[in-house]
Every structure is written in structure tokens, then in C-alpha cells.
Design goal:
The structure is a single chain. The protein is α+β, with helices and mostly antiparallel strands. It folds into 3 domains: about 150 residues, Rossmann fold; about 110 residues, Immunoglobulin-like (Sandwich); about 50 residues. The longest helix is centred in the last third of the chain and has 24 residues. The termini are far apart. The relative contact order is 0.09.
Amino acid sequence: MSEGRREDAVLAINSLVSSGGTNIVEGLKKGVRVLEERRERNPVASIILLSDGRDTFNSESINRHRSPQNQNSRQAVEYLNLLPVSICGSKNVGGNEARLPTIPVHTFGFGSDHDSTAMHAISDASGGTFSFIESVGMVQDAFARCIGGLLSVVAQELQLTVRSVSPGVKIGFIPSGRYPSGMSNQGQQGLIKVGDLYADEEKEFLVNLSIPIVSAAEGEERPEKTSLLDIVCSYKDTVSKEMVLIEGERVEIRRPEVLSPMDLIPSLDVDRQRNRLWVAEGIAEAQEMAEMGNLEGAQAVLSNRRATLRSSASAQAGMDSAAGLKPS
């Protein structure tokens, strides 16, 4: 901004007045309109949302039409339906759907009265981050981390496509957390929309496959391996703004007639990732049971997950810890 424009911005901000109430949805809609209508477009653009209260214009109307038992469990889902598609697009992404980049929203909740449920939901759905600002002294560091991350974006609109390459090999599902994913061609292709990728950042995804039993007709040699997947990564370069396509190495599996002792050792990295997903599902299940008043059931779920996690291969190797799963 020029010096004159800075002065105009300061005057505009100082002219704002509060008439009571908080309308987060309309604020985000306005932010989306600003980004979509701007003439000069930066390679990386995000929305920063600051709030110290609850959305009194939207959340209260949702709560009035919901039974008390489902108030917490459904609040985030219903709230996201009010937001623009540019922030919270559909998570059911088909393999042939056109790219619709999501605008990340980085949320900052000030003090103990902010709506953490809504702020978490908005940041997760849009691919942004959430920061809790407990005191004024934390503001500078929180903003510095957020802006530093935005400046280190090295890839945008990143997508991973996995395709089956052998008869009978079928992709079951791809647990992708907050990242939109989808299946197509009757399990022959899967897609994960990652969005922005930061410098030195790594993403790990599990792909669950169904693999046919090896069989060989009389007189034919048994195949030594089976090709499983081709993996393709596409993204937009932040400097050239051009789309880049990278093809990974084909994923194959050995098919020995007799398993060696080494073949029986599970991959610790895969086991650890599987544990993370399984524990996260258990925590969500326990939370839902607790919100419904079934505290004993919630404690039982956490106790079961903790015991199973401790006996896993990665935990035995010291890679996972069940210390945080305390059913208290």
C-alpha cells in the first residue's frame, strides 16, 4: 500500500462502530467477496478471522431448532452449511470434478467467551489454522506464526490421485481427515485434495486396498509380484502459477509362495498411522457418547483403545504412546 492508501485504511478502520452482536457468517461472506472481486491477485490469499464472542445472529437460530441432546454434536455441521462454498466446499469430491480451490480461513479466538466449536470447524473445513489467544501478550507471536506460514506456501491446489493398475485390485477407502477425498470408477480411482503445502511440510495418507489371491493355472509360473497403484500429484506452482504434474513410482507387492520371518514384520510407520486414525475415531465416539450422557460407555471406549494401542507393534517399538488416553 502507498502512504496515502495506508492513511485511508486507518481512517476507514477508525470509523467502524459496534452496535452489539456478532455475525461471523456475514463477515466471512464479505471477506470472500473482497477476495473474489479484487483486481490484483496475490499467489497466496487467505482470510484471517478474529473473534471474542459467539455468532449471535446465526448460532442461536440453529440452537432453537435442535434438541438439547444433539446440540453439540450437530452444531458445527449445521453452522458450516451457512458459509460460502469458497470456504467450506463439499467433501464428497468425485474424480472428474473440476478444481474449486478453497480459501483458507485462519481463526483467532480471543479470551474464554469465543465460540471454539465454530472457530475450529471453520478453520478445519477451509484448511486454515486455529489459535487461542488467552492474553494480549500472545497476539504478536500468534500472528507472526500465521503470516510466516502464509509466506512459506510452496504449492497450491495440490491433489493426489491413486489408480488401480491390476485386475481385482480395488481401493476400499482413503481416510483423509479434514482433506476432501472421494472414490470413482467403482473403487478403481481415489482422489485427495490437499490444497496448500508449506515448505518442509509432509502429509501421510493410508490407502486401504483389496488385493486378489494369487493363482496360477497348471503349467504357468506363479507371478513374483503384483502391481497395485499408480500415484499422480498435481499442484500449482506459486511462482510461475502453472500447473505441475508429477508421476510417482508404481506401487507393487511381492507374492512369495512362503513368507520369510522378515515378511511377517509389520511396517511400523503404517502401524503408527493406523493407530492414529483408530484412536481419533475412538475419541470422537467417546465424545459423542459423553454428550449423550453415557459416561461409562465413553470411558470403556477410551480404555479399550488405550489397551489395544499399548499392545501394537509401533507402541512396543516406542513410536506410539497411550499416555494421553486417560478415561477420566
